């Protein structure tokens, strides 16, 4: 039976992560453009540097964490303990960096996400862990509402103090949660050694191999990395998943309203239901349904036109709900890809962090390109450059003269097209990529059975 404390601690990691992550998503463009009023070149250079780092840090940490598993075999509990040992120190460190750099720093994302694949093979157990991530993510999203109280673009000191307090709370909570998880894993390892069973949802290979390195045919780390990249390039389900995930971006080109702040909590609430549907119908079917709903809502909004304000607000909020809902389920898909990679490449040990990191390497550029593409599309569709004529006038919002009704209408129509057409195009492309993803149904059952070491005839 899955330990309740394990679920609570794993979910709390999502809480302490989202506390800081959501603040960045909400304010970073407004801070740089409207407050610091940086010029366009500086903004693009900064986003490019961030793109490189944001794309490379996940596979880098994943490689550092998992490269030994390409040449060694260890027990499942040992893998979890090593990840938690790394998170115990890296998580608080990254949390402390956030208020200093005002940069998006997920708390060791590869290691955190890899835990989902390492803690369990069973889909229902993974879904339950993901359920707790959404449950605790609701409380983490409350930091957005608290920030609304202290946010003042003319006086940032209160907001800065608020961010520092959030970072301290996040670092302390992260430290406590990972230590408790380590204690649970130690207890489970002791129990499995004493009774020959695995409990609490942990999966594991034979523990007698924990301290025994099994050398493979790789001469060095360079050959191991080259072989892994070659294998991954031929992993068709991973390639199609990466293509779909790359499109999973949000164009944050308009200043967030209270409606948008509510949308930070709504995805977590909906995901509590989505995870239930995943247990009943499978993750693949649920994600495909979310894409279809997003497409239908976009087409309906386009036909309705920009004159229905409340309908537009509902569309913006619902689009974020379904987009974020999909994002919250992707860790389950990558965990299944970890299992498939383990089976089809006959690995001695699953390389969870490396798989999650490589996936992030492909998808993270979309997050960084979103504001760049978004500001460019806003300018092309509305004629409004958010950087305006220099540092003195840069602003996300466009100010109109009361007599400039024609210009206001051009701006309104342009924003409407941007808000509606981008989700529609993304949904079409994602459905096209997702239709080629075959890791579901009989194929997924075969992978799960093979991962557990049982024979299964259907591929």
From TrEMBL:
Protein source organism: Ridgeia piscesae
UniProt cross-references to InterPro entries, sorted A to Z: MFS_trans_sf, TMEM180
Bilayer-crossing regions: 7-29, 93-117, 129-151, 157-177, 285-305
Entry-linked PANTHER family: TRANSMEMBRANE PROTEIN 180
Superkingdom in the source lineage: Eukaryota
Keywords of the record: Membrane, Transmembrane, Transmembrane helix
Transmembrane helix listed as a keyword: yes
Transmembrane helix listed as a keyword: yes
Protein name according to UniProt: Transmembrane protein 180
